[in-house]
Every structure is written in structure tokens, then in C-alpha cells.
Design goal:
The complex is a heterodimer of chains A (160) and B (654). Chain A has 160 residues and is mainly beta. Helices cover 9% and strands 24% of the residues of chain A. In chain A, 39% of the residues are buried. Chain B has 654 residues and is of the alpha/beta class. Chain B starts with a strand and ends with a helix. The radius of gyration of chain B is 24 Å and the shape is globular. Helices cover 37% and strands 15% of the residues of chain B. The longest helix of chain B is centred in the last third of the chain and has 26 residues. In chain B, 61% of the residues are buried. In chain B, the strands form seven sheets. In chain B, strands 1, 2, 7, 8, 9, 10 and 17 form a seven-stranded mixed beta sheet that branches. In chain B, strands 16-11-20-21 form a four-stranded antiparallel beta sheet. A two-stranded antiparallel sheet of chain B has the order 3-6. Classes of the chains: A mainly beta (160), B alpha/beta (654). At the A-B interface, strand 5, strand 6, strand 7 and strand 8 of A face helix 1, helix 2, helix 3, helix 4 and helix 9 of B. Strand 8 of chain A pairs antiparallel with strand 22 of chain B. The structure holds flavin-adenine dinucleotide and iron/sulfur cluster (2 copies). Flavin-adenine dinucleotide (FAD) binds next to helix 1, strand 3, strand 8 and helix 11 of chain B. One iron/sulfur cluster binds next to helix 1 and strand 3 of chain A.
């Protein structure tokens, strides 16, 4: 099954249940630990693997086309802003670590709260502009692109 | 049943499904509607929901006008060309002129976008794509949506839209159930923005058994955007325009960065270039469209499919050259880890090291969605300053149902929006929705208790069916009175594959097959209504996902039957109409399902192309061909914009 849970590591905290986009990580009521209830609806997206505080979840490739014996593991760290992967081939010939940034700012701090941003005036509402525009939408410091500003017309038919 | 009914009243903007489109909508709505009540209802957890749950390694739609790279009309030309002319150019232009502002905000929010140090621009993967370290793309945009929304209801599977009982064809909110508690949730709202995404698992996937979750678009993409809007009576467009993707075999790892950035290329089983030899034959089907640059996605698929059918498979991606460069090799792997980990898992499991072995490619089963190289979705109004009359009815991205808006996959005719364009469409829809409310269009909505009660009954019916008939049998899943959601899904996939041009029949169909498909799907829909059973809340979720997939499929069948031509060879073929037919079919297809009777009506809508200097030049050099006469005289303005663009580009560099 795509994801599976290591018996001795899972404490039934439910983080994986909370995050799985497919709603397939569930807690078994007898053993009070998580498991994948529907492997054929698993995308191997690793959302649960990344979320588990105890590294209790691993992925074994789909049985219908992936042989046994390899591993792809991950650790995601929001505080450090990085994600680290380890890929080990079945034959052991490739075993390497890959690391990538996940954010350039302290988590969430660069995102504005629009409740506290000054609201739009009437002319802004009447225009085609969105929040924070026309910043970034043109190179010549002009306003928003329009058919007129770009010398275009809309015409019915087959024209190209 | 013991489930509670929880009513959330007086909502102004209800966002249904918060993927890239929905998060954009929730975020932007707060700016325009400080005093408005903004609520998100999402099937999963918005931190990791939708097609971007595992992240992305590229943003595929970015103009770079700030750096003098492209203008919005360039992107319109590109998307129009790729979709063989069948796009809503007003919506595309509008999306393209705003998309950069979304992308630059992502960077300010902390999304790591790679830079081209020499040019000072973003690192380009291709003309439209930029490269990112996007593992946390979704949690980052979710954070923005959470800051704006009054409340996020995670784990609500929305099943139906509510309709106003006072005024026909006006939306009044939505209902659904909580996949954890089972409770019934009612959201009464003046406007609804649907961002519930496209559809996987409509067609029989190439994977079997345990691997059936390995589909290209996420298995949780249940076509809910379409199911919800179709049932409410919204008009849909281009639903026949499903997409087939050439991807790494089995893992469905993306190829964009490989082609564009790593400069890998394909060859057949004999190590030969094969694409170009299929082009002369394609001319017989599509005429001059084969001469367009770049070659449309579907036509490249056609060459792939034809070469394999001619017995010269498999098609390989030649990676062995590029991967000798350790930097490029790392990018190749990061590309998967950032958005399709399953491909890395597969290569590790099968000892495929692309440095020493060229991996196989495949063409996928078809998908129904509207933000990739395909444009299925709702027929929506465009912006006032761009759209001709046929495309404009008051509010940007509003469907033909009053107060009902769409974003991302939900909106039809807008291919190549991708993640950034979908987010942008959400922002546009949010601004328009707030305007709609401020104009008083949402006043006096009444949603009766009868309607709410009726929906409640329908929602839990599959659990009732299970309870009533379960004890007729000893054990197991074979029951003469019901089928479970998995059995229903298998039937749907088999019939769509066989009758509506799936991978199993090399994407071939015709009018006779389509008519049988419609009939069989009707029977499945009947079985769903009276005999779908859910043993628990999780199966209830699967039952309603299946319902939305059935509604989507019905629309796909009807549209495919209506368009009597083969417009996109390589996506699907109408064997009885193997020619592209511009004379009769240079039009958009628009359908409506009558919510009372379930009957379909279809019509043709005109296509308006954006004409600029580029087209005028092209037209002069093109051989004279009969084209429908223009209704309006062409604009006389011919001032070239190009020199200005060049000047600015050099300015940006210094
Ligand atoms: C493998 C892959 C690679 C891709 N690569 C790129 C790329 O490199 N660059 C790029 O820009 N784009 C890429 N895309 C495309 C991009 O992901 C989509 O274009 C975009 O996510 C579409 O946005 P959306 O809001 O329409 O749908 P989604 O983002 O899928 O959001 C839909 C949301 O609706 C929710 N939902 C569904 N049904 C219901 C319901 N019944 N009730 C409540 N909520 C519901 C879902 O849970 C989800 O949150 C890729 C997609 C895939 C799958
Ligand atoms: S997150 Fe980890 S520890 Fe918690 S329930 Fe899931 S598998 Fe167990
Ligand atoms: S890998 Fe993704 S789909 Fe599979 S169980 Fe984990 S979170 Fe769910």
C-alpha cells in the first residue's frame, strides 16, 4: 500500500488524518494507530509523511508496478524553511540527499492581513485593477493593459 | 439520523473549494469587502488540498511584462494556438494582464522563486514558465486565504448549491456534510465562488489495482466544480475538450522542465526522431493548424499515439545527455520531489537512473479540467472593457446563474491558466462578487426550509440504502439492491473509456458509440439515485464524488457528440468526422442541463479573436482562404508596440 505506518512509532496523534487530502489516513479503533484505509486512492503525495511528528509513515511504491526494496524519505522543517529528501535505489547504487528551501521568510510573516490594509476608493472600484495593482503588471509604469493601450481589437471569425 | 444540522447564515462570499482558485478568491475578497462575511467550505484541509497538495516546481503562467518579456496578448496567441483556436480570448487576456501581480505577491509572501542572476529576472523554464522551490506553495497561499476569511470550514464535502426560492436562476448558498462528524452543513450566502477543481478518475486509469491512485491529476479531483454548477443549471462550455498528457510512464512525472529547461527530447523504440513524419498526415485532418508554432499539444500527442500504434514503441525521453551535468541531474530529480514524488519512488524502485538509461513515456487517460492545455468549464462573463456583448453579462467570471462565480478549472475556455492563473481568476471573481453585492443584486434571497430539508434527505440517502438492504445478504459487497461507490466508479470508468475515447481505444469514438455511452451512463445515474450505498461517512464522501463525476461525464458525452469534427487529434478522435471543420465548427460549444428535467440543450457560440499587428502580418502572408466575413470593420490603429517593448527590456537589464 502506498503509505504504511510503523507500529512502534505511531502514537495515534491524528496529524496525518487531519492533513490527508484524500481522507484515507484513519485511526484504527482497536490498536489506536493510524493506517491507510484506501491505498488505491492514495496519490503518494507525502502530505501525511511530512506532517507526522514521529516519522511513523513511509511509502512503499504501488504494488502493480513498483518492485520492493527502495525508499524515498523526507523531513520538512518549517522553522528552518527547508525540506530534505533521501532517495535510495533498490539496488543500492544510488543513495543521495537532496535539499530545497520551502520559504524565504519566517513562516507566514510576509503575508499581509487585508483587514488592516487601507481599502479601495471609488475610482479603484470602478477600474479593472486588483489589490496592489498596477504594481508589477507593466514594465513601462503604465496602467493595466487594455485592448486600446495594446492596439488590439476583438473580432469574430477565423483569423489566423 | 443523529447528525446535527449546522446553519451558517448571512454569508456574503462563500468560497466552495479552496485550491489555487479558491484561495485567491478568499484572499482578494477581503480587500474589496472589508465588511463582508467571507467563508470557505473545503472538502479537505486547505493547507494541503487540491492539485497543488504536494507542491509545484514551476509556475506555468507568468508574463514577465515587468522585465519586458511578454505582453498579455502574446499569451492569448499562445493559448489560442495550442487549443486549435477554441478559447475565450477575453478571459485569457484578462487573466494574463493580472497574473504577474499575483506571482510577485507570492514571492513577497515567501515562495522561493528562482532568479536568473545575470538578467535579474525570474529563472525561466520556458517562455511562460518560471522555476520555483514550491513544496510549500499550497500552505503559503492557504495562509493568505486564512488571514482574509472569517472562517474556514475544512472537511466539508459540498454536495449541492442552494437556489433562491424568490428569484429564478439565482444562487443562495451551498450545502454539504462534514466528513469527520457527519453533520449536515448549510451555508446561506449572497454569492458563491466555485473553485472545486477539475476531474480525474472519469476515465479508466492505466494503473490497475493498488496503483489506481496514481493518476496524473489528483485522485481527489472529483469534478465537483462541474457537478455543482451543472446541477444548478449553469451553462457549460468546451466540455468535449478533455486532455491527454504525455508523461513519464506509470509515475506520470511532469515533462515540462525536461523539455524546456533540461533540453531532453523524445525518440521512438528504434532511437529515431518520429514526430515530424506524422505532420504531413496531420495536415489532412487539421489543415494549416499543423504549421503553427509551437506545435499544439494535441498534435504532438497524435504523433506519439500513431508511432506507438505503428509498432515502434516505446517512446523514450532522452535524458542520458542532459543528466551528465550534475546540476541538471539534480534539477531533474527536484522537479519530481517538488510535485510528483511518486515518479521518484518509481525510479528508485525500478533502478531507473536517467543518467544511464532513457526512461519511457506514455500518453495518459483523458482528464476533464480547465486550467492546463484544455478549457472545460462554465460559460462565464468576461470583463466589461474587453468582452464583446455575447461574452458579457455584468460581472467578471460570473456564470449564467446569478451570483454564482467560478475560478480555475471551474471556468471554461481559459486554458493555460495553471496555478497562478487560477489564483488570479479567483481574485477577479472575488472583486466582481463583492461588486454584485454592493449593487444590491444579492438582496431578498430566500432559501426555504423545504429546500434545505430535501437536500438533507438526499445527502444521507446512500447511508439509508445501506442500512435497509445490508442485512439481505450474509456478508461481502455483492448485493442485488445496491452498489458501493467503488463499483460505481469502475463502471463509469469502463464506459467512458470504451464509448467516449479513452486510452483503451486509442482515444477513438464516433456518434454511435457516444449514443450508447449516453444510454449506459443514464442507467448508471439511475442506479446512483436509487441504489448507491455508503456504509460510513467516508463512503458517503466517495458516493458524492461519484455523483459529481457522473454529472461531469454526462456533459462530456453530450458535448463530444455535439461537436461534429475532430478538432484536437491526440486528445480524441471522432471516427465518423475525422476532419477539422472550420467552416462549421470554429465556434465554442455551450450546453445547459435543465435542472428540472435533466435534459440537455446545446448551442454554438461565436469565437472572437484578439487581433493585433501580429495577426495582420500573418494574414497578409497566408494564402487566401475563405473566412467568414467580419461583422465589424477592423480597427484602423496600427501603431507598433514592439519597439517600446524592446526599449524597456534593455532598460530593465541595466
Ligand atoms: C501533477 C501536476 C503538475 C502540475 N504542474 C503545474 C506547474 O508546474 N505549474 C503550474 O502553474 N500548474 C501546474 N499544475 C496545474 C495546477 O495545479 C492547476 O491548474 C490548479 O491547481 C487549478 O486550480 P483550481 O483551484 O481550479 O483546482 P484545485 O487547486 O485542484 O482546487 C480544488 C479544490 O476544491 C476542493 N474540492 C473539490 N471538491 C469539493 C467539494 N465537493 N466540496 C468542497 N471542496 C471541494 C479540493 O479539495 C481543492 O482544495 C499541475 C497540476 C498537477 C496535477
Ligand atoms: S501523524 Fe504519525 S504518529 Fe500521528 S497518527 Fe499519524 S502516523 Fe501516527
Ligand atoms: S500520501 Fe497523500 S494521499 Fe496518500 S495517504 Fe498520505 S496524504 Fe493521503
Amino acid at each position: 500500500m502506498p503509505t504504511y505506518v510503523h507500529m512502534t512509532r505511531c502514537d495515534g496523534c491524528g496529524q496525518c488524518v487531519d492533513i490527508c487530502p484524500s481522507d484515507i489516513m484513519h485511526i484504527d479503533t482497536d490498536i489506536r494507530r493510524a493506517y491507510n484505509i484506501e491505498p488505491d486512492m492514495c496519490w503518494e503525495c507525502y502530505s501525511c509523511v511530512k506532517a507526522c511528528p514521529h516519522n511513523a509513515i513511509s511509502v512503499r511504491g504501488y504494488a502493480d508496478f513498483a518492485p520492493l526494496g527502495s525508499s524515498v524519505r523526507v523531513r520538512r522543517d518549517e522553522e528552518k524553511g527547508v525540506i530534505a529528501w533521501r532517495i535510495i535505489f533498490r539496488n543500492g547504487k544510488k543513495d543521495w540527499d537532496l535539499i530545497a528551501p520551502i520559504t524565504t521568510k519566517p513562516w507566514g510573516e510576509g503575508i499581509p492581513d487585508l483587514n488592516t490594509v487601507e481599502g479601495p476608493g471609488d475610482s479603484m472600484r470602478d477600474s479593472q485593477l486588483l489589490y496592489n495593482e498596477p504594481k508589477y503588471v507593466r514594465f513601462d509604469e503604465g496602467g493595466l493593459h487594455t485592448l486600446e493601450s495594446n492596439n488590439l481589437v476583438m473580432k469574430e471569425g477565423v483569423y489566423y | 439520523m443523529a447528525y446535527d444540522t449546522i446553519i451558517e447564515d448571512d454569508i456574503d462570499v462563500l468560497v466552495v473549494g479552496a485550491g489555487l482558485g479558491g484561495t485567491g478568491a478568499a484572499f482578494e475578497a477581503r480587500y474589496w469587502g472589508k465588511d463582508k462575511k467571507i467563508i470557505i467550505a473545503e472538502k479537505a484541509n486547505i493547507d494541503r488540498s487540491g492539485a497543488v497538495a504536494q507542491g509545484l516546481y514551476a509556475i506555468n503562467c507568468y508574463m514577465g511584462t515587468r522585465f519586458g518579456e511578454n505582453n498579455p496578448e502574446d499569451h492569448v496567441r499562445y493559448a489560442r494556438n495550442d487549443l486549435m483556436g477554441m478559447v475565450r480570448e477575453d478571459l485569457l487576456f484578462d487573466m494574463a494582464r493580472h497574473v504577474d501581480s499575483a506571482v510577485h505577491q507570492f514571492e513577497e509572501w515567501g515562495l522561493p522563486i528562482m532568479r536568473d542572476e545575470k538578467k535579474g529576472t525570474y529563472q525561466r523554464e520556458g517562455k511562460w514558465q518560471i522555476m520555483i522551490h514550491g513544496e510549500s506553495y499550497k500552505p503559503i497561499v492557504a495562509e493568505a486565504a486564512k488571514k482574509s476569511a472569517d472562517q474556514v470550514f475544512n472537511r466539508i464535502c459540498v454536495t449541492h448549491l442552494l437556489m433562491d426560492d424568490n428569484q429564478e436562476n439565482r444562487v443562495g448558498g451551498a450545502v454539504g456534510f462534514n466528513v469527520r462528524t457527519g453533520n449536515y452543513h448549510v451555508f446561506k450566502s449572497k454569492t458563491v465562488i466555485v473553485g472545486a477543481g477539475g476531474a480525474s478518475n472519469i476515465y479508466k486509469p492505466r494503473s490497475v489495482g493498488e496503483g489506481a491512485g496514481r493518476v496524473w491529476y489528483a485522485p481527489w479531483s472529483s469534478g465537483s466544480a462541474y457537478g455543482l454548477m451543472i446541477e444548478a443549471g449553469a451553462e457549460m462550455t468546451q466540455m468535449e475538450n478533455k486532455i491527454v498528457l504525455a508523461r513519464f510512464k506509470d509515475g506520470y512525472g511532469p515533462v515540462g522542465a525536461y523539455f524546456l529547461h533540461l533540453k531532453t527530447y523524445t525518440q521512438n523504440g528504434n532511437g529515431e526522431e518520429y514526430e515530424s513524419k506524422w505532420f504531413p498526415g496531420l495536415r489532412d485532418i487539421v489543415g494549416k493548424y499543423i504549421d503553427h508554432e509551437p506545435i499544439p499539444t494535441c498534435l504532438r500527442n497524435h504523433a506519439f499515439i500513431s508511432e506507438v500504434n505503428a509498432g515502434r514503441g516505446p517512446i523514450h525521453m532522452v535524458t542520458m545527455e542532459a543528466f551528465q551535468d550534475p546540476h541538471l541531474e539534480e534539477i531533474g530529480w527536484h522537479n519530481f520531489l517538488g510535485m510528483t514524488v511518486g515518479q521518484a519512488v518509481l525510479w528508485a524502485a525500478t533502478d531507473v537512473d536517467p543518467k544511464y538509461e532513457n526512461p519511457e513515456l506514455t500518453t495518459s487517460e483523458p482528464y476533464v479540467m480547465g486550467s492546463h492545455a484544455t478549457g472545460c468549464g462554465a460559460w462565464c462573463s468576461g470583463p466589461e472593457d474587453v468582452s464583446p456583448d455575447e461574452y458579457f453579462w455584468g460581472y467578471n467570471r460570473m456564470t449564467t446563474v446569478q451570483g454564482l462565480f467560478g475560478a480555475g478549472d471551474a471556468v471554461g475556455g481559459t486554458p493555460h491558466a495553471f496555478s497562478s492563473g487560477s489564483f488570479t481568476e479567483g481574485r477577479l471573481a472575488a472583486k466582481a462578487a463583492v461588486q454584485y453585492i454592493n449593487d444590491g443584486k444579492g438582496e431578498g434571497i430566500s432559501v426555504s426550509d423545504t429546500q434545505i430539508e430535501k437536500r438533507r434527505e438526499q445527502i444521507y440517502q446512500p447511508m439509508e440504502t445501506y442500512k435497509v438492504y445490508r442485512n439481505h445478504i450474509t456478508a461481502g459487497t455483492v448485493n442485488p439492491y445496491y452498489i458501493n461507490p467503488r463499483q460505481g466508479l469502475d463502471r463509469l470508468q469502463k464506459l467512458m473509456d470504451e464509448y467516449c475515447g479513452g486510452a483503451g481505444v486509442s482515444y477513438m469514438t464516433n456518434d454511435k458509440l457516444l449514443n450508447i455511452g449516453i444510454k449506459k451512463l443514464g442507467l448508471l445515474a439511475e442506479d446512483w439515485d436509487g441504489g448507491i450505498a455508503a456504509k460510513d461517512i467516508h463512503e458517503l464522501l466517495r458516493a458524492w464524488e461519484l455523483k459529481h463525476r457522473i454529472l461531469t461525464s454526462e456533459s462530456v458525452l453530450e458535448h463530444t457528440l455535439f461537436r461534429e469534427e475532430t478538432r484536437w487529434p491526440g486528445y480524441y478522435y471522432r471516427g465518423d468526422k475525422m476532419q477539422l471543420d472550420d467552416e462549421n465548427w470554429h465556434v465554442l460549444t455551450v450546453s445547459r442541463r435543465n435542472p428540472e428535467t435533466g435534459e440537455y440543450s446545446l448551442r454554438k457560440a461565436p469565437i472572437y479573436h484578439i487581433i493585433g499587428d501580429e495577426e495582420k502580418k500573418q494574414k497578409k502572408s497566408a494564402p487566401k482562404k475563405k473566412a467568414p466575413a467580419a461583422k465589424k470593420p477592423a480597427s484602423k490603429k496600427t501603431v507598433a508596440k514592439k519597439p517600446a517593448a524592446k526599449k524597456a527590456a534593455t532598460k530593465a537589464k541595466t
